[in-house]
């Protein structure tokens, strides 16, 4: 590769580094490991740059390298307890529906009041408790703001799978936050049922 390629790569990677680092730290749950993951992913991206067909797809392609590196090297060395059911009949839970119970609507904007009273750490912990296949898609889309197509490229799955996983992840997060708020006495509505998950993780 010539100096033009080197300059282009340097510019693109420099612009992406904050997002790559943010995603890596969330995936690894550790800053040092996150830094190592980014360094390795950037090195692999540079080595593989000649194989990139469309430079407009660079962002999703680099995130794919990052997630693949995490899966193959970092996640395999840990035990996250991620084997759990992702069946389509998981109980759906809508935070919006819970917040719009008549008793809550007397108090102005229920969503804003609710979210203002939740600690950021509770959301981080709720994300960390998700199985990896759901946690990763939340990190890519809701935290790092990748598009559905970019996330699909990064995860090497169809866009429909990304949408399905994100919907399930958001439902679980909403349910977890509602449970935390109920336990803390922030809400007056009924707590959602705590349903035990069964079966293998099918990843879809």
UniProtKB/TrEMBL annotation:
Residue ranges for the region (Disordered) are 183-204
Q: Which Gene3D superfamilies match?
A: 1.10.1740.10, Winged helix-like DNA-binding domain superfamily/Winged helix DNA-binding domain (1.10.10.10)
Alphabetized, the UniProt keywords read:
DNA-binding, Sigma factor, Transcription, Transcription regulation
Indicate the segments forming the RNA polymerase sigma-70 region domain, all copies.
Answer: 13-78
Top-level division of the source organism's lineage? Bacteria
GO molecular function terms noted in the UniProt entry: DNA binding; sigma factor activity
TM spans, by residue? Answer: none
Keyword DNA-binding in record? yes
Q: Alphabetically, which GO biological process terms does the record hold?
A: DNA-templated transcription initiation
Query: Which residue numbers delimit the RNA polymerase sigma factor 70 region 4 type domain?
Result: 121-173
Task: Please give the family membership noted in the entry.
Answer: Belongs to the sigma-70 factor family. ECF subfamily.
Which PANTHER family would you find in this protein's record? RNA POLYMERASE ECF-TYPE SIGMA FACTO, RNA POLYMERASE SIGMA FACTOR HI_1459-RELATED
Question: What's the name of the protein?
Answer: Sigma-70 family RNA polymerase sigma factor
């Amino acid at each position: 590769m010539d100096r033009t390629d080197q300059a282009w790569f340097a510019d693109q990677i420099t612009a992406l580094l904050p997002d790559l680092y943010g995603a890596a730290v969330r995936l690894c749950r550790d800053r040092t490991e996150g830094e190592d993951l980014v360094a390795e992913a950037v090195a692999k991206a540079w080595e593989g740059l000649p194989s990139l067909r469309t430079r407009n797809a660079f962002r999703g392609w680099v995130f794919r390298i990052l997630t693949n590196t995490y899966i193959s090297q970092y996640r395999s060395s840990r035990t996250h307890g991620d084997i759990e059911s992702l069946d389509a009949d998981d109980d759906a839970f809508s935070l919006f529906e819970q917040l719009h119970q008549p008793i809550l609507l007397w108090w102005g904007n229920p969503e804003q009041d609710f979210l203002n009273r939740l600690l950021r750490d509770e959301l981080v912990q709720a994300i960390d408790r998700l199985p990896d296949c759901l946690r990763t898609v939340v990190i890519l889309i809701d935290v790092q703001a990748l598009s559905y197509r970019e996330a699909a490229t990064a995860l090497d799955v169809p866009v429909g799978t990304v949408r399905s996983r994100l919907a399930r992840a958001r439902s679980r997060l909403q349910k977890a936050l509602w449970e935390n708020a109920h336990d803390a006495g922030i809400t007056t509505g009924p707590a959602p049922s705590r349903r035990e998950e069964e079966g293998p993780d099918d990843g879809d």
